[in-house]
Amino acid sequence: MGFFDKLLTGPVMAILRGMDPQRTVELAERAWDLGIEAVEVPIETQQAEPSLRAAVRAGAERGRPVGAGTVVTIEQLHTAKELGAAFTVAPGLDADVVRLSAELDLPHLPGVATPSEIQRAHRLGLSWVKAFPAAELGAGWFRAMLGPFPGLRMVATGGMNSHNAPEFLAAGATVVAVGSALEDAEQLPALAKLVEKRSSETE
To answer: What is the set of active-site residues?
Structure first.
């Protein structure tokens, strides 16, 4: 069983972008308390690196792995490794980043939006991909991709919330990645229910 098969056992992943370290840790802990195991902190700029460092430290205290998002260059990949990220995520598919990730033993989740990109990801040895931007692709896209790629594991990212998540999960997404939904008190019960439902189905 691969890293993401073990990590992404629940239907929800958290993306904590553009927040200061304190707020990042606060929402990471909220995610963990809801039963969301996977937390990603994007590091598209150097200013975001302290937030990843803080989340990694908080995750270590609770035995939770934290990943680095928006890793699109070799330099960012090395930074993620140095900051203690357990995995990396990207909006697109870069073969050099995928190969170096494997060399660094740092699991990588690349972004895809076409069948050709999915095929390239498969050739690079990946069974998990991030479908981005999911809301624009539409739930039907996920259903269509499962036809030619029946073993594919897809994380729906971009425009996901507690309201549309069930539709995308029903269409074939393995996981939905939410961000601002974690800051919306009205959506928290629905997110918790999604996690609880998947847990009861796998017991």
So the answer is: 40, 130
